[in-house]
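Quick log. Single chain, no ligands specified.
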Amino acid sequence: MKRIFWLALAFAPWAWAGEVQVVLNGCEAGQSVRVGLYLPAANFPKGKADYEQVTQASGATATVLFADVPAGRYAVAAYLDSNGNQQLDRHWYGPPSERYGFSNNARNAFSAPSFEQAAFDVGASRVVQTIQLQ
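-> predicted structure:
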Protein backbone atom coordinates (compact mmCIF):
# COMPACT_ATOMS: atom_id res chain seq x y z
CA MET A 1 0.00 0.00 0.00
CA LYS A 2 2.84 2.44 0.82
CA ARG A 3 4.39 1.85 -2.59
CA ILE A 4 1.13 2.82 -4.36
CA PHE A 5 0.90 6.00 -2.28
CA TRP A 6 4.41 7.09 -3.23
CA LEU A 7 3.80 6.26 -6.88
CA ALA A 8 0.63 8.38 -6.81
CA LEU A 9 2.60 11.29 -5.35
CA ALA A 10 5.30 10.96 -7.99
CA PHE A 11 2.74 11.26 -10.78
CA ALA A 12 0.51 13.94 -9.24
CA PRO A 13 -0.02 16.94 -11.56
CA TRP A 14 1.59 19.35 -9.11
CA ALA A 15 4.74 17.23 -9.21
CA TRP A 16 5.31 18.32 -12.79
CA ALA A 17 6.95 21.67 -12.51
CA GLY A 18 7.84 23.94 -15.38
CA GLU A 19 9.53 27.28 -15.88
CA VAL A 20 8.09 30.64 -16.82
CA GLN A 21 10.50 33.03 -18.51
CA VAL A 22 9.25 36.60 -18.74
CA VAL A 23 10.98 38.94 -21.21
CA LEU A 24 10.09 42.59 -20.71
CA ASN A 25 10.65 45.13 -23.48
CA GLY A 26 10.44 48.89 -22.96
CA CYS A 27 12.55 49.01 -19.80
CA GLU A 28 15.04 51.67 -18.74
CA ALA A 29 18.57 50.72 -17.69
CA GLY A 30 19.08 50.76 -13.93
CA GLN A 31 15.36 50.78 -13.07
CA SER A 32 13.68 48.11 -10.95
CA VAL A 33 11.24 45.83 -12.69
CA ARG A 34 8.64 44.00 -10.58
CA VAL A 35 7.02 40.88 -12.01
CA GLY A 36 4.14 38.94 -10.45
CA LEU A 37 2.97 35.48 -11.45
CA TYR A 38 -0.66 34.86 -10.51
CA LEU A 39 -2.81 31.77 -10.14
CA PRO A 40 -6.49 32.12 -11.12
CA ALA A 41 -7.88 34.17 -8.28
CA ALA A 42 -9.66 37.42 -7.62
CA ASN A 43 -6.38 39.19 -6.73
CA PHE A 44 -5.16 39.54 -10.35
CA PRO A 45 -3.62 41.97 -11.12
CA LYS A 46 -3.85 44.36 -8.17
CA GLY A 47 -3.44 41.95 -5.25
CA LYS A 48 -0.45 40.04 -3.98
CA ALA A 49 1.10 37.74 -6.57
CA ASP A 50 1.54 34.04 -5.87
CA TYR A 51 5.15 34.34 -7.10
CA GLU A 52 7.06 37.61 -7.37
CA GLN A 53 10.50 38.70 -8.54
CA VAL A 54 12.30 41.99 -8.75
CA THR A 55 15.21 42.62 -11.08
CA GLN A 56 17.22 45.54 -12.40
CA ALA A 57 16.91 46.34 -16.08
CA SER A 58 20.32 46.36 -17.73
CA GLY A 59 19.01 48.04 -20.86
CA ALA A 60 15.77 48.22 -22.80
CA THR A 61 15.03 44.58 -21.96
CA ALA A 62 14.86 42.65 -18.69
CA THR A 63 14.38 38.91 -18.19
CA VAL A 64 12.99 37.06 -15.17
CA LEU A 65 12.83 33.29 -14.72
CA PHE A 66 10.38 31.56 -12.39
CA ALA A 67 11.64 27.99 -11.85
CA ASP A 68 9.79 24.98 -10.42
CA VAL A 69 6.34 26.42 -11.14
CA PRO A 70 3.65 23.77 -10.61
CA ALA A 71 1.60 22.92 -13.68
CA GLY A 72 -1.49 25.07 -14.04
CA ARG A 73 -2.96 28.25 -15.50
CA TYR A 74 -1.21 31.54 -14.70
CA ALA A 75 -1.09 35.21 -15.68
CA VAL A 76 1.71 37.78 -15.37
CA ALA A 77 1.54 41.44 -14.38
CA ALA A 78 4.70 43.54 -14.47
CA TYR A 79 5.73 47.15 -14.07
CA LEU A 80 8.79 49.39 -14.14
CA ASP A 81 9.22 50.81 -10.64
CA SER A 82 10.79 54.11 -11.74
CA ASN A 83 10.99 55.69 -8.28
CA GLY A 84 11.67 52.51 -6.27
CA ASN A 85 8.63 52.81 -3.97
CA GLN A 86 7.53 49.19 -4.66
CA GLN A 87 4.12 50.12 -6.03
CA LEU A 88 2.61 51.02 -9.38
CA ASP A 89 2.11 54.77 -9.25
CA ARG A 90 -0.87 56.46 -10.86
CA HIS A 91 -1.70 59.87 -12.24
CA TRP A 92 -4.19 61.89 -10.19
CA TYR A 93 -6.86 61.09 -12.77
CA GLY A 94 -6.41 57.30 -12.55
CA PRO A 95 -4.19 55.62 -15.14
CA PRO A 96 -0.71 54.31 -14.23
CA SER A 97 2.15 56.78 -14.47
CA GLU A 98 4.78 54.01 -14.66
CA ARG A 99 5.22 51.53 -17.50
CA TYR A 100 3.33 48.26 -17.07
CA GLY A 101 2.26 45.18 -19.01
CA PHE A 102 0.52 41.82 -18.82
CA SER A 103 1.08 38.36 -20.25
CA ASN A 104 -0.23 37.86 -23.78
CA ASN A 105 0.18 41.67 -24.02
CA ALA A 106 -3.45 41.80 -22.89
CA ARG A 107 -4.92 45.33 -22.81
CA ASN A 108 -8.24 47.00 -22.16
CA ALA A 109 -8.98 50.64 -22.90
CA PHE A 110 -10.08 51.73 -19.42
CA SER A 111 -9.20 48.89 -17.05
CA ALA A 112 -6.75 46.09 -16.40
CA PRO A 113 -7.38 42.92 -18.39
CA SER A 114 -9.17 39.97 -16.84
CA PHE A 115 -7.26 36.93 -15.70
CA GLU A 116 -8.53 34.97 -18.71
CA GLN A 117 -7.28 37.60 -21.18
CA ALA A 118 -3.75 37.29 -19.76
CA ALA A 119 -3.81 33.58 -18.87
CA PHE A 120 -1.50 30.88 -20.22
CA ASP A 121 -0.80 27.27 -19.29
CA VAL A 122 2.34 25.95 -17.63
CA GLY A 123 3.30 22.30 -18.00
CA ALA A 124 6.55 20.43 -17.50
CA SER A 125 8.55 22.64 -19.89
CA ARG A 126 9.54 26.30 -20.24
CA VAL A 127 6.93 28.87 -21.22
CA VAL A 128 8.18 32.21 -22.55
CA GLN A 129 6.02 35.34 -22.22
CA THR A 130 7.31 38.45 -24.00
CA ILE A 131 5.65 41.61 -22.66
CA GLN A 132 5.85 45.11 -24.08
CA LEU A 133 5.69 47.62 -21.21
CA GLN A 134 3.46 50.59 -22.09
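Confidence is low (pLDDT under 50) at residues 1-10.
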